[in-house]
# Entry
Amino acid sequence: RTTNPPVPILRKKMSKSDDLTKKLFYKRTNFWQKAGKTEQQQAHAFCEGYKNFLDVAKTERECIDFYDNKLADEGFSEIDGGTKSKKVFRLSRKKNAAIAIIGSKPISNGVNLIVSHLDSPRVDLKQNPLYEDGETKLGLMRTHYYGGVKKYQWVSTPLALHGVFVKGNGETVKVSIGEDESDPVFVMPDLLPHLAKKDQYTKKIGDAIDAKKMNLIFNSIPYMDETDEDIKNAVKLNALVMLNEKYGIIEEDFLSAELQLVPAGKARDAGLDKSLLMGYGQDDRVCVYTSAQAIFDTKDNDKTVIVYLADKEEVGSDGNTGAKSIFIIDFLADLLKYNNEDSDSATLRKTLLKSQILSADVNAGINPNYPDVHEKENAVHIGCGVSLTKVTGVGGKSSSNDANAEFNSKIISIFNEENVNYQTGTLGNVDVGGGGTIAKFMAEHGAEVIDCGPGVLGMHSLYELTSKADIYSSYKAYKAFFEKA
Ligand code: MN
Ligand code: MN
# Structure
């Protein structure tokens, strides 16, 4: 075998048109190509903390618990706690929160706020869930899905049970079964393909799994009683005996409980190069985590900055823990008062009108298996950084916030100055479908608002896929917004 001498590489001379193309064309850039080794390592390292967060905070209540434990360590104190501090927070109804750093300028000059949501699509237990099937003598739980789920994904997959019982005496009992390796998991068994011809294969995919058939197998051993061999509902009785021993609850406590089924197990690196991250609930906990880390790392902000973690986005932001409630406005009014500023209605309105908001939510990355639902020049490319989304909604831009050009351009300039990998995005091609975010509800208060977050593959599925490049870019984008906008 002989070695050939290296062939000299002939470089094409840059022509005038090449120069002009380079100067004038917009080109989306891939984070991994652009970032140096150090920043690539920073992206990987950042995501270790994020994975841990996804593992321990799978419900809105667990997210709030996570920050309740963390905020004091990060130097924040409760706004109602009586101490004077520039770093304050308020938790509300154990399901939503506001975290703020008061700036050197008056709050009434306007704040920079990032809102994200900590609820994710899931399957809840019904209020009266437990029953024993008369034929099979199995203990089961009835369910009711929450948010936009594809029901077929939730059957025949390991699920963990999370939530709370609030007992008659007011005591709250937390439940988490299925996350520890030694815990049991729960399954809603799907129909075997051999017998699915009539019940499933003739139906449209959205109808193939009937919500009434989404009952999970809870237990199967009957209660044993030597004095009574003919116990009615012995399997259900055994389930209640076990629950009573473990949590001190009776069946009536289910009626008020909030119990949620989520995919069991931990978030994982994905892809051979570990450049991606697979985990449940990244819509929108990726923005919860990145915006919270951004405020923790914010230094020398002249404007007041706020992270608002809202609940109920997946069901329309309704309810007193959702973004349509007065919670955040009330917090802002109290923040003005706390900072010895006027907090009357007019001042509050003007403060909102002068404020700037990033609606931090995920967008749909181009899925190479389904490229046709996107228009690729206006869609989010995985690995190319955080996405700025001017327009959400459906059809002819209805139900959309539609960010103003001036504000949009200002944010782009900040991202360029701060070397944030960003791109623009839309949720799918025109007339293919659509979706909304919190942006339009925040815009109702008159502030400038734009959607800003990473792309996701398989959004709302059990195991959403994100790029570590986009997660890290989102964190950088949020920090830049807080420090420079
Ligand atoms: Mn979302
Ligand atoms: Mn969603």
